[in-house]
Amino acid sequence: MSEITLHDLEKQYGETTAVEDVSVEIRDGELLCLLGPSGSGKSTTLRMIAGLETPTSGTISIEADDVTDQPAYERNTSTVFQDWALFPHKSVLENVAFGLKMRGMSKDERHTRARSMLERVQMGGYGDDDPTNLSGGQKQRVALARSLAVNPDVLLLDEPLSNLDKRLREDMQIELREIHEDLEETFVHVTHDQDEAFTLADRIGIMNEGELVQVGDPDEVYENPKNRFIEAFLGDTNFVDAVVTRTSSDAVHVDTELGTELVLPTDAEPAVDEGTGLTLSLRPEILSIDGETGRHEPAGKQAVATDGSAHNAVTGTVENVIYRGSTVRYSVSINGSSMFAERTDASTGAHAAGDDIRLEWDGEDVLAFSDDGTRVTL
Amino acid sequence: MTSTLHRETVENRVFRASYLALLVFMLLPLFVVVVTSFSQAGRLAFPPESYSLVWYGEFFESTRWLRAFTNSIIIGVGTALLASFLGVTGAFGQELDTDDSLGAILQPLVLIPLLIPPVVLGITLLMYFSEVGLRGSYASIILAHTLWATPLVYFVMRSVFSRFDWQQLDAAHDLGAGPVRSFVHVVLPNVKHGILVGALLAFIISLQEFVMALFLSTPSTTTIPVLAWTQIRQALDPMVSVVSTFLILISIGAIVLAAIATNLEWLSKQLS
């Protein structure tokens, strides 16, 4: 059981910086997901923990031992690779037993352990098979068994599910989660898929352009994103440009591109000045659709509560309706700008293109970001 | 009978006919050599007046020829081993080198011996080996032939390694295999056919190389091509054809072996 500390980790390839200033403490037994778009440095960070890449500067310690200069084969970490990297010339059983063979375990012992690991990942009957004949999901299981067989201090997963189809990927996420709970080992999982990160992670570390932007519990990073990038990356949202027109002791009034003035309640004296440009984020789940009232008012007309309460609303025209299985997404035109809202129950209050609808939300749920993308706490 | 032939059909036929003619033209001398080796007369003539295995008998009774034959095999095997070691490690090292600075030096360096005329190489090496006391040794000819064979092994291995899935090496390291064990257990099984092909190429190069061997060999290290040349200068008898036939057979055998090895690799890929 271990705790990993990355301190000021940096990796450069010639002129390009792949990873910059990454510092994080990975807790004993947790499942940390490194989440980020491709090229954000998450895989490079993982490979540095594995010892497959040498950091340009910074240190890595596992269980308080500085392992920065230790080669991969001396570290007790184990990686499940994106393409699984099974040895094609070895049988499935030999693949799983390979790490144990390298650790000098006798043939009987390692084969017994390899068999039990294959059982663990429900591949018990495939020991004698050629790994090249297996399906993607099966290869993924064998790769997992091979990595777990050596009983690593930390299991590193480099997007091992990204080559599987959606259904299988979701099943494997649950299974991986169960294996993690079972083993109580430290897992570091790299993915570009937000849903996967939220399904698996105890904590999520979000990377962008080589930097670790924010680390936190899933609900924390989702509800309290540090910057605009994270807000945009973690889910679909409506960004609305706004300018502060007036501040009061408990609210900020902004003029928006929607053509309406919105009121954002604050807990204390607002920290923004009049004239400051902001980007507001209105996630679809905070928007409630009220078609009944909306239908009687002309599109774009201001419909904001002016009493300073947290209640905000706009009215617009439905441009198109997209059925997305469990949800229905409305694209709504408001004063020339476009927003989208979602309704989870497709049968109630159905709207068609051309209908006027009213979107309402609680001003407290709106997140604001400054022009440089950093979060503005109102 | 008039039939209009399509342009494409005509082109195809002309191409095939020319190709066949070229092949016949190139293989005819080999055919002549093999046929004359079965001659009974002591004079090299085609076609022979009568056929027998008398010159094959002569060959196996001639200590000079058997000695040259053994020398050629020793030097060929030595060259194959040394050139394979250098070519494989060079190509492997270049693959591991992430910023490719090694390749910038290695690639032209490896090619240089192929660009120097063998006469120049032969004379230079003769002087050099005399200086360091290697003159007249097997090692001197093996080293000379290695200069020629290594580039070929190297380029064969470059192409073999380019098809290797390098993530496997990462996986081997990750599972605790150090540099040597990961090479032996993971890289080698994947590229062994390529190495065999390279080694056979090196062996054939060495077996037929004449110019450098002429400069560097002494009576005790004479190779088959060198002895054949000295013999031809004295008498043109069918013994040369017998020896040539053996060389041709060995080369064909090596090529067939290499083809089987590459096809096995291809076959295993097809099955997967």
TrEMBL record, chain A:
Topology with respect to the bilayer: Peripheral membrane protein
Where does the UniProt annotation place the signal sequence? none
**For this UniProt entry, what is the primary localization, expressed as one broad class?**
membrane
Q: Can you name one GO molecular function term for this protein? A: ABC-type tungstate transporter activity
InterPro entries, A to Z: AAA+_ATPase, ABC_SmlMolc_Importer, ABC_transporter-like_ATP-bd, ABC_transporter-like_CS, Mo/tungstate-bd_C_term_dom, P-loop_NTPase, Transp-assoc_OB_typ2
Source taxon at top rank = Archaea
What GO cellular component entries does it have? ATP-binding cassette (ABC) transporter complex
Q: Can you give the residue ranges of the ABC transporter domain?
A: 4-234
Q: Which PROSITE patterns match?
A: ABC_TRANSPORTER_1, ABC_TRANSPORTER_2
Family of this protein: Belongs to the ABC transporter superfamily. Sulfate/tungstate importer (TC 3.A.1.6) family.
Q: What protein name is recorded for this chain?
A: Molybdate/tungstate import ATP-binding protein WtpC
